[in-house]
Amino acid sequence: MKQFLGFVKKEFFHIFRDIQTMLVLFGIPIAQLLIFGYAVTNEIKDIKIAIYDQSKDDVTLQISNKIISSGYFILEKNLDHISNIEDIFKKGDVKEVIVFEPDFAKKLQREGIANVQLIADASDANTANLIVNYTSRILMDYIQKENQLVGQPLQIDTEVRMVFNEGLKSVYMFVPGTMALILMLVSAMMTSISIAREKEMGTMEVLLVSPLKPAQIIIGKVIPYVTLAFVNAITIILIGYFVFGMPLKGSIWLLLLESFLFISMALSLGIFISTMARSQQVAMFISIFALMLPTLLLSGFIFPIENMPVLLQWISHLMPPKYFIIIVKNIMLKGTGFMYIWKETLILTGMMLFFIALSVKKFKIRLE
Amino acid sequence: MKTNSENIIIKVENLVKKFGDFVANDHLTFDVYEGEIFGFLGANGAGKTTAIRILCGLSAPTSGDVEVAGYNVYKQTEKVKKNIGYMSQKFSLYENLTIKENIRFFAGIYGLSGKVIKERMNELLESLQITHLKDTLISSLPLGWKQKLAFSIAIFHKPKIVFLDEPTGGVDPITRRQFWDMIYETARSGITVFVTTHYMDEAEYCDRVSIMVDGRIDALDTPSVLKNTYNAINMDEVFLKLARG
């Protein structure tokens, strides 16, 4: 145990004495929080919606059909009670619910005005804004055409409501994304580089010849990065909460636990990378192209997954950060409990075990 | 030098190591005696490093038996590891730790107590005359010093055997001479030294040398016997005669 603690201490010395390492660990997180605040998206496609039609007359049916046939939306479900709205949002697939008031057609005819309510899931602020704008345009279009036919001015009054993020703050989007990116970077990239460095310098051989067990060496390498990644996670949550006013509706303990799971997953990925990389450059290269870019581009962090081509959507399912981002958003914005994120948690756990098994296998082959 | 030819400390029998079709070590059989300086010679690519890695437990042989310090290398690896020291070809200390921290770290992983480490460290720093540099980062030391320090750290836990894999690569002749003085001193203190090199003048300093050619050991004896047998004036000539077949 004393040997092991000495090892961990040595590892901390490496980190604190290397300016580049320190920059990556503590400089980049803050820079990224600022940079990604301006991430923009611009198009939507095949967004899942639900319709709560309290009127069920000719007009609401026509409007519904027009919306669904527009190509932008897919009808996931027809709701029959107001209480279903919250549930369906918490499940996360449906991004918008359209609510028609009772006697919609009658009101439109008699009073010339009827009400429709658009409720959008704004935990992804950009997408929510786009969805609502698209839906409103379709409604406007319908009413204009009707007006031409009938010759009398009709009006549909649209009331928009954003749930989970009423202020449409995009910070709510990039805090979870930055968290995933930073934890990935610190855990996977830094671990793989630091193990590759020992191989490159020849110190790994000296360690393997010593009485330290390989498992002790690996765990000793990993502990400092777990600690620092955790410090980073907490820093990002604090900045999000106090500086940007990001809510934390769910349990902080669940959030930390899930962060810990994600960190462990990233570390096992880092160890796996280091079994393939012979030098620091190779480890860095693999980390950037296999971890950083996909995390940025394919995890739903910047670009909504729903709008990607099918092939990229499939690839995005393989991106661990995707699941972590869903988990963080669910806990922080929607305040959901474990019940709603057990699937994502299970996937991350599976990925972690997969990478550990691969690394162990690779490690054995190397020794032969 | 007190070579005890009765006590065998490394016993290698029919060691074979293959990488696919390539045979790196072809039925090696030799003994190393306690307290001697055993030179393991050969050209680059002759299979020296492969063999030394197997002796240290870093790599598993394809077949054959290897005993180091009385223990089977792959069945009792943990026991072997406690009894050996190793200095790799690449100079291997941590550049961004100080001299003192490097010593503490490596001594620590061999389980030495704080008190012992402190005592031996002071002794070591004094004998290398670097006490005033103990808080200097390794990266700022000249190569020769790093190598001497790496060697001292490899024997810091007083192992029975120390393996040196081309320890003098890339240093100037004076430092090489000083380095060999350290090796002599180590052997005098009872530690067996197993050293690989391709500098043939260094072979003269060894008690016994083995010469590897293409994965086989072609000759093994004291330098003077080898020079007589091959009718050569120095080890360089012995080696050339063997290498050219």
Task: Spell out the key features of this protein.
heterodimer, A: 368 residues, alpha/beta, abc type-2 transporter like fold, 5-stranded mixed β-sheet, B: 245 residues, Rossmann fold, 6-stranded mixed β-sheet, 4-stranded antiparallel β-sheet, 9 helices, 36% helix
Structure summarized in a few sentences:
Chain A has helices at residues 2-17, 19-35, 58-68, 84-91, 104-111, 125-150, 171-201, 203-209, 214-243, 252-276, 280-298, 310-317, 320-334, 342-367; strands at 47-53, 73-79, 96-100, 113-121, 155-163. With 368 residues, chain A is α/β, with parallel strands linked by helices.
Helical percentage of chain A:
55-70%
Beta-strand residue fraction of chain A: 5-15%
User: Any low-confidence stretches of chain B, pLDDT <50, length ≥5?
Assistant: none
Gyration radius of chain A, in Å: 25 Å
Alpha-beta classification of chain B: alpha/beta
Unreliable spans of chain A? 38-42
Oligomer: heterodimer
| Structural domains of chain A: how many | 2
Briefly, what CATH class of chain B?
Alpha Beta
Distance between the termini of chain B: 33 Å
Give the averaged pLDDT of chain B, no decimals. 88
**Radius of gyration over C-alpha positions of chain B, nearest whole angstrom:** 18 Å
CATH topology of chain B: Rossmann fold
Q: Please indicate the percent range of residues of chain B in DSSP E strands (runs of 2 or more).
A: 25-35%
The biggest beta sheet of chain B is recorded as: 6 strands, mixed
| Helix proportion of chain B | 25-40%
Structure description:
The complex is a heterodimer of chains A (368) and B (245). Chain A has 14 helices and 5 strands. By secondary structure, chain A is an alpha/beta fold. Chain A folds into 2 domains: 2-39 and 170-367, no CATH class; 47-163, abc type-2 transporter like fold, CATH 3.40.1710. In chain A, strands 2-1-3-4-5 form a 5-stranded mixed β-sheet, with helices on both faces. Chain A is elongated and about 90 Å long. Residues 38-42 of chain A have low confidence and may be disordered. In chain B, strands 6-7-8-3-9-10 form a 6-stranded mixed β-sheet, sandwiched between helices. Chain B has a 4-stranded antiparallel β-sheet with strand order 2-1-4-5, covered by helices on one side. In chain B, a hairpin with a 2-residue loop joins strand 1 (4-19) and strand 2 (22-34). The longest helix of chain B has 16 residues, at 173-188. The radius of gyration of chain B is 18 Å and the shape is globular. The two termini of chain B are 33 Å apart. The mean pLDDT of chain B is 88. The chains are: A alpha/beta (368), B alpha/beta (245). The A-B interface holds A 2-3, 6-7, 9-10, 13-14, 17-18, 201-203, 205-212, 367-368 and B 56-60, 78, 81-82, 84, 86-97, 101, 104-106, 108-111, 137.
